[in-house]
Prior knowledge:
Layout: H1 14-20, E1 24-28, E2 31-35, H2 38-55, H3 60-67
Antiparallel strand pairs: 1-2
Helix pairs in contact: 2-3
Amino acid sequence: MVNKSGLIMVSHGEGTLRQFCQAGIFLHRGQAHWFDDIEDALQAYRSSIQTAMRLAGATPDAVAAVSEPKKRGRNVKS
Length: 78
């Protein structure tokens, strides 16, 4: 493998994962779930969080807030 490298990154920072990863592994209930697309892995993670929140009795607004990732960044003037 020429010009190839690998990295295992563990993060809850979606922006960081999008920046550095193309694929993802989501660990859930002791099982590793492989996703070829990082967006699919992130969606599975958010879905599991929403389910846990519903089971814990969170308000619908709180659960809905998890469905969309937070857009973080800074304004850069050109």
